Amino acid sequence: MKIKNVVxxxxxxxxxxxxxxxxxxxxxxxxxxxxxxxxxDNFSFIFTDYSCSSIPLDVLDTNSGVLVHTPLDETxxxxxxxxxxxxxxxxxxxxxxxxxxxxxxxxFVIPDEYMVATEVPTASYQLSVTNGAIVNSVSWTTGGxxxxxxxxxxxxxxxxxxxxxxxxxxxxxxxxxxxxxxxL
Length: 184
Fold this sequence. Notes:
The protein has five helices and seven strands, in the order ααββββαβββαα. The protein has helices spanning 2-19, 28-31, 86-98, 151-168, 171-174; strands at 44-51, 58-61, 66-69, 78-81, 107-108, 123-131, 134-141. By secondary structure, it is α+β, with helices and mostly antiparallel strands. A hairpin with a 4-residue loop joins β2 (58-61) and β3. Helix content is 31%, strand content 21%.
């Protein structure tokens, strides 16, 4: 009789187990978010702004703490000491991390299906970034940025404007000859 009860209990357990919904397995990466790259002590970047010219308007090197400014229609550059604060560097790093900048191609081009209209004037930019042993340089031209709807292009445009505003708002920069606003 004991064997009969054990068999019945096992049969009931098997039937109940087969009737219950299958366990849902969630991949590990969905449960644990990917670890972001931390900002290294040597985080720095060189931002080169070719607004309206083949000669860079501004070149900011955060590693050496120098900004080279060439006023439009001039060939002589002005070099000034230029230090971003730790907070400003952290803000730039955070934007780069959020947009996955370190995985952008070296020559960024908007795919043809996103080319809606040409933005005038066209400007070119280059951004070379070092973070620990990771180095990435990205160059691009804004000619296809206008209302492209391409998320990566919009992120780059936002990063450019963020860095430019940071530069323009520094007292050191405000002492320089004013750039032609139509080109910015």
